[in-house]
From TrEMBL:
PROSITE patterns the record matches: PROKAR_LIPOPROTEIN
Domain of life: Bacteria
Bias-annotated ranges (Basic and acidic residues): 24-35
Chain intervals for the UniProt region annotation (Disordered): 20-84
Source species of the chain: Streptomyces ureilyticus
Regions of compositional bias (Low complexity) in chain numbering: 36-52
Biased composition (Pro residues): 60-70
UniProt-recorded name of the protein: Lipoprotein
């Protein structure tokens, strides 16, 4: 009786390998003629497989500045002091602190990515990163919200617009 159990177990294991597709002709002793016709036909492409057309953009896209090219002029230049009321447009070419209300943002640009690190009364509150065309919004004093838009960015600089409402 134990011999029969071993044979049944061996058949179950071999059957499982064959179903799972893990065996080869050498493993099971099956020949090409014994394979099911559906297995050899499954590699044929279906009639519905046609080359797909590339998707067309929903809106026309404007060319972005080159990674090292010039950026548009910022309304307030590099003057971060213009941002104290929460409304300004500045050019960031090196890490700067932008004071808004009773907190500030540490702003840096590297590899066309803008990083805003938010501090409030000296406590770190969080950070966000985004690229050209990106936006970040955060709460400020007096239940207001400040939004920062990346107007343009290149390899190591960005024009950012701050709006507080």
């Amino acid at each position: 009786m134990p011999v029969r159990v071993k044979r049944v177990a061996a058949v179950v294991v071999v059957g499982a390998l064959a179903v799972g597709g893990c065996s080869s002709d050498k493993d099971t002793g099956a020949s090409e003629a014994k394979r099911s016709p559906s297995a050899s036909q499954s590699s044929k492409p279906s009639k519905s497989a046609e080359p797909s057309k590339p998707a067309e953009p929903a809106e026309p896209t404007s060319p972005s500045p080159s990674p090292t090219g010039p950026l548009p002029k910022a309304k307030d230049g590099k003057n971060t002091g213009a941002c104290t009321d929460g409304n300004c447009e500045i050019l960031v070419t090196k890490p700067v602190d932008v004071v808004i209300g009773d907190g500030f943002l540490h702003v840096s640009v590297a590899v066309s990515t803008i990083t805003l690190m938010r501090f409030d009364s000296g406590d770190f509150l969080g950070y966000v990163t985004f690229g050209e065309g990106g936006q970040a919004t955060f709460p400020t004093a007096d239940d207001k919200r400040t939004t920062v838009d990346a107007i343009a960015a290149n390899k190591d600089s960005a024009v950012l617009k701050f709006r507080t409402k």
